[in-house]
Design brief:
By secondary structure, the protein is mainly alpha-helical. It has helices spanning 2-13, 22-29, 33-48, 51-61, 63-83, 87-115, 118-149, 154-157, 159-173, 187-206, 221-240, 257-286, 292-316, 324-343, 353-375, 383-416, 419-442, 456-459, and strands at 178-179, 214-216, 219-220, 465-466.
Amino acid sequence: MYALCIGFFMTLLDTTIVNVALPSMITDLGASLNDVIWVVSAYLLAFAVPLLLTGRLGDRFGPKRLYGIGLVLFLAASLACGLSTSAEALIAARVFQGLGAAAMTPQTMAFITHLFPPAKRGAALGMWGSVAGLATVSGPLLGGVLVTHLGWEWIFFVNLPIGVLAVALLVVWVPDLRPNRAPRFDVLGVVLCCLGLGLLVFGIQNGEHYQWGRVAGPITVAEIIAAGVLFLALFVLWQASARNPEPLMPLRIFRNRNFSLGNVANIAIGITVTGVFVPLTLFLQTVPKLSPLMAGLVTAPASLMSGVVAIFAGRLSNRADAKFLPIVGFVLMGAGIVAMTFLLSDGSQWVLLPSMVALGIGMGLVFSPLTNISTRTLDRSLLGAGSGIYNTSRQFGNVLGSAATGAVLQIVLASTGDFTSAVRAAFYLLLAVLAVGIAAAFAFRRVAAPSVTDSPRASDPGLPVSRPS
């Protein structure tokens, strides 16, 4: 479990740690603003698009193998990122870093659901959720320390010793769960899914950069988004087709009410977390003009509280009434954002600390319980696909959060010239998103708590993998 969490932490950390280093990259690499935006976008795109595919690849070749391949690729790409001497080289390395993260992430949740019986799964998911919450919001703090004292390259070099430890633990501790069968591969589904998600994410993530107009020649952002939607529609039709013997995303998985609602809430938490910290980090360094390190310290209480609370929330998520954990979590996140909206100013930023604490507690109550509730009743034969879908929904939420809040910031700033008002407008958008998350959590179906006598095989005879002897 520790080996998996270390690697999982690195993949999520690299979604946010780059933000505070962007000004240094512009100076040291002679890069343009567009170049450094692509440093962020390239990782998000390469991370988000293949997640459905890598979840199923884990089903076919074994999650340990896919995780190991992804971890090695991630480490090699991290080294290449730190050694980059041009923006183009850094962007290319970030693409491979994102692909490595995409190979690793679904396998972590698949291992948890395969190795832990239902009665113990909540505690394991508590650790998993704690890592997710801690990594997502600790990036600005760690990035601020590294950029201030060592340079932007070290936000990538820091992955190397941690990753080597993760590789060693993976080899020694993690069992090699091997498939009992070699499922067919949905090649057409892979192509349609990657094209659809790639075009849609590209259009949303970079629409504001192109002012929602032309991208190249006669091609516009709207046409790229429309093409992405079309390919995804074709993907869904192909998944439902009787001619598809083994779909990449079996649609029957969405008959599970809690899984479907969980993905809606998962998108909401992804949008909110990214949507809060991207504009807040920019605000702290723009209006009160805090250093990267001080900006990270202001957000640190959210990181700390999220990591601590998620451990206990995961243990409580096995209860039949566990849906009230994410409900309360979403409400606390909303309360924290409301408080921040009124407290934003160019004076002392320590007044934001109580709202940071509320935000962190809320995140800790959402991350791991939401995962447990969403996946607890899934058939074991669908765990690989479910892991890929669930992780895709959160990563897609991250992309939407970045794009949507970025668009609001640009629009309000252009009309008012006031950055504080722009950030407040972005926060209002996030409150609407949180309302959707609360509604989804309220609609969860009550599920009986698992028995402590349950075992992995007894609880689900359809387990598609076995331990090697």
